[in-house]
Amino acid sequence: MRIASTADIHFSPQSYDHIREPLSHVRDEADVLIIAGDLTNYGKPEEMESLLNGLVRLRIPIVAVLGNHDYESGHQDDLIRMMTAEGIKVLDGTGYERDGVGFAGTKGFLGGFGRGVLTSFGEPQIKVFVQAALDETMKLERALMQLRSEKRVVVLHYAPVVDTVRGEPEQIFPYLGSSRFSEVVDRHGAKFIVHGHAHHGALEGRTTAGIPVHNVSLSLLMAQQPPCVYRVFDV
Ligand SMILES: [Fe+2]
Ligand SMILES: [Fe+2]
Asked: Ligand 2 is a single-atom ion; what residues have CB below 5 A from it?
């Protein structure tokens, strides 16, 4: 299976005009398209409606997770309903199998990497924050456990390793993701992980167990030579 992957579309009519033509070829190059979050800029149903108009024309099965921007207006449940109604498989702590390949996905969360991971200590606000990260790791675990297929692909919005955020200002690394998620994937196994969110990070990384991690954030892909709007991976 050939899997095209992108993230961080941050839909606006102007920005979508830049990617409409190159994205229209995705069906010739891949069997499935993954969109790893931040489909909209402000999480507004109007943005999603316009984006879906474009996405349905691609005539390719789409698997997606939401990103933090898709939560901005508090309409995330509406967005998921709209996407689902158009046949998009939205993963939110769920697994999906297609042609022998399993997709496990959830948004993920921030909180830092390695020794820098924020832990649950002190003020109740810190504990609430850390609990939100733990809840997301449990959702990812549940998604992976739902899959029966040997070939699995993990879809996150936030970065699960520090490698793929390098290139961003070091001060904001802890806001770009958390290695709690790569630990979960290492326990369950996967062919690779795709994520977005780190718009100016690095393309490639690996988990501690050596699982490839691909940052497919659109702005990062557009900054490549030659620019592209998705990457294609074989499983
Ligand atoms: Fe983004
Ligand atoms: Fe984001």
From this structure: 38, 67-68, 197
β-pair type (2-6, 231-234): antiparallel
CA of 174 to the centre of ligand 2 (A): 13
Q: CB-hemisphere CA count at 13 Å for 50?
A: 16
What pTM was estimated for this model as a whole? 0.98
d(C-alpha 77, C-alpha 57), whole Å: 23
pLDDT of residue 58: 98
pLDDT score of 216: 98
Note the residue count of the chain: 235
31 C-alpha to ligand 2 centroid (Å)? 25
Distance from Cα 120 to the centre of ligand 2, integer Å: 23
Residues of the chain falling short of pLDDT 70: none
Collapsing DSSP states into helix, strand and coil, what is residue 191? coil
